[in-house]
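ok trying again, last paste got cut off:
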Amino acid sequence: MSADSTTTNPAQAGTDTSGASPGGRHLGLALFVIAAAQLMVVLDNTITNIALPSIQTDLGVSDANLAWIVNSYALAFGGLLLLGGKAGDLFGRRRMFQVGIMVFTLASLLGGLAPNEGLLIGARVLQGVGAAIAAPSALALITTTFPAGKARNTAMGVYAAMAGVGATVGLLLGGILTDGLDWRWVFYVNIPIGLAVLAGTKTLVEAERHPGRLDVPGAITGTGGLIALVYGITRGGEHGWTNGLTLASFAAAVVLLAVFLVLQSRVADPMMPLRLFKDRNRSGSYATMLFIGAGMFATFYFLTLYMQLILGYSAVKTGFAYLPFSIGMAAAAGISSKLVTHFAPRLLAGPGLMVAAVGMFWFATLETDSSYTAHLMPAMFVTALGLGMAFVPMTVTSVSGVSDLDTGVASALLNTAQQIGGALGLAVLSTISTSAADDKLPEAASSLYRGLATKDFGLVSKAGEALTHGYTMAFVASGVMFVAGLVVAGLAVNAGKQEHVEGAAPVHMG
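nice, full thing came through this time. structure:
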């Protein structure tokens, strides 16, 4: 047990897993509320992607600004997570969860009503702000609402599954809504979900609020440093790693984060207590999640391009093609949530990441005419099974043994690792993919569009082969990232089965 396991909250003191938490609140409804919130936050990383062509046509968005409809959300979300987690610890997690969902829901309404690209990008930023407030509190509320043991492990499993299921549901839902209704519905769909989540928040158990005040210098330097880092990564993938603004962003991130760490070691009530990193299991979980995020989110990007550009799938067909991924992720997370009481986390995460890497290397054998049923579908399922097995133990371990005082920040760090990992992975792998494709055929993507426009099918064939080669190189790199995560988990995460199950309060394992 880690040294900072000092506070026990009411939910952790009991071991009843009969279906109601203390106070008669129903755990089933509470789980639905948290899962729905996590699903809504995660699917917004991908649901807008499929609608981008329609948005560009309808609003006249420039090519330079189109990517920011996606990136602005990731920037605000990733940059403000630590601040959101600390706010939950200080002002009440259920209260901040409600605030975050309200902001997110309002921003979704504004996004759907947006008459131009400027207001749409502004709405996406506001969505990211709401997500950054709600997401850390959602994970922290699991530890206050669900008793340690089976109930909490199941909740953790569902929460972890939403990370993968949400991304694929976003692709599916984005295609259906864009083709069947209008692109604005990719925003409107969040409104009924958000209202349902808000109505159900009474089932969540609020943790005791902790005395203290917000570390303003830490908030400014930490948030500024993370925003500069995410922006630098995003811009590097778009404009090159030697671009002047890219380098300036990285320099600003280094300076701000260095000042932030110095401040955190000196102030009485830090925004990110450095004691959280003294536990090797927690630090190892964050590092592992960084690699998982890097490999997973880039996978969706390249698979979507492959299916639409190379195989000619429509938006709706692409979304449905991802169903095996959702099924595999949900199934594996459910199994893993039961196994965490019997096996140490690295004994689940390690084999899971190895299976996920096998799936990536399977994708690396794709050709321009590969079969969906014989190649894509089984590779998706295998990858999802592996990731589902890895997500749950790493999610549990990241908040295991954390005092109630720090649960929100610990949860925020997990989400931050995933977001930064996703941004970094997409930027790096895009560079690898583009470089490999252009080695085969200069400006391969432009050549494909030019060939389609002029009906030069010879050029289309050559461009398709070059792009597919680029995608497969990205899949190889994704597989390497999963292997790196496996190594980190194996070396750093040495918790036994009891250490990572019980949260902050020791409970007898029979």
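cool. Residues 1-25, 498-510 have pLDDT under 50 and may be disordered. Residues 457-492 form the longest helix (36 residues).
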